[in-house]
Write a structure and sequence with these properties.
This protein has 396 residues and is an alpha/beta fold. The protein has helices at 3-7, 17-34, 38-41, 62-81, 101-113, 125-137, 166-180, 195-211, 229-237, 250-260, 276-281, 302-311, 319-338, 343-350, and strands spanning 49-55, 90-96, 118-121, 142-144, 159-161, 185-191, 214-221, 242-245, 266-269, 288-293, 354-355, 363-365, 371-372, 376-382, 385-392. The chain folds into 3 domains: 3-35, no CATH class; 49-164 and 300-365, 3-Layer(aba) Sandwich (Rossmann fold); 167-293 and 377-392, Rossmann fold (3-Layer(aba) Sandwich), CATH 3.40.50. It has 14 helices and 15 strands. A hairpin with a 5-residue loop joins strand 12 (363-365) and strand 13. Helix 7 crosses helix 8 (195-211) and helix 13 (319-338) crosses helix 14.
Length: 396
Amino acid sequence: MTHAGMRSFFRPGGLPMQKNLRSLTFIAMVCCLALVPDGDARAVDRPAIPVAAIFSQTGQAAASNHSVLSGVRIAVDEVNSNGGVLGRPVELLVFDNQSTPIGSSIAARQAVDRQVAAIIGASWSSHSLAVAEVAQQNRVPMISPLSTVPKLTAIGDMIFRICFTDEFQGRKLADFIYNDLHARSAQVFVDLTSDYSMELSRVFIDHFRQLGGTIEQEIEYKSNQLSYDQQIAAAIAAKSDAVVLTGYDESGYIAAQLQDKGLQAAIIGGDGWGDGDFFASGGNRLKKAYYFSHWAREWDNPNSRSFVRHYGQTGPVTFGTALGYDAMHVLAAAIARAGSTDREKVREALTRSSHPRGVTGSITLDGQGDPIDKNIFVFEIRNGVPYYLQTLSPQQ
């Protein structure tokens, strides 16, 4: 509006000055609201709902955690652009767990001190276990997008997850190796510093033996050790149809070394593979291998296709991105269903959660806080490149 136009509000014979000022104030408010998108306008001047995101921003897990946090942020932006939750915007408070269980516990206590309505995180199972202890003790609802260790939700009634568990994954891994790859003997690499690796290995070994398979040996290591030469030599010396690596990024290096030294057995991993660090450490040199994942961008599902279409062009979207996105939407829906940010009411709403339009599939939580009927996506690595191979449903 021009300066001359502003003067017209004070023309001679107009309203008294006080009424003019009131009119100006009202018009200014209307103009300001007109500049805000419709969704945000409904949440304007309402206190934000604080939600904590606890992930690794520094340290060993930072690269793999980045995609999960990215998915959470995408979902928060979507929620806020559509008016927020209960007419209030969601404020995402990010806490760095520094890639350690101790750092995860500290981050969780910081989140509690900020009076968050809920916690989303962490990613690695050992980190989530530490967060869960603090969350349960302080009665704060927590949703892990990606931690598969079964004992996580057993910590208490405030703890939830939206990914499949190692109990489910380990059985499917044994089924796939025994029935699809026709392997009758296997060796298993176990990372003694990882709750995830130890639990996945345990479940796989038990079920593989039940199917009639033989475990030639369990090869133990620690992911931070300087050399894996001794473990690699032991695997080469033993004869087996398959070698299972249940670790994270280091599995790429170990698998590549096994292949380079002439291993002929099939090489298979769990959902700890699949991110950039795994391939950078040696996975990009594998001629042939298999691994499990929580999602495939090639999956022919309408919600998945829509997600890739909207966000796959602006940056890389991975299974971590999809799980982080789904976790935030499950939480937002629970808060809306609770009609409150009261933590106990949110917890109660989460126990009744059903999210049929998840990017990673329909998400319904059971009484333990775990999802039921989650798919597993199988990838085959050929000449260093992962290709979506098939989907394993719980019924298979």
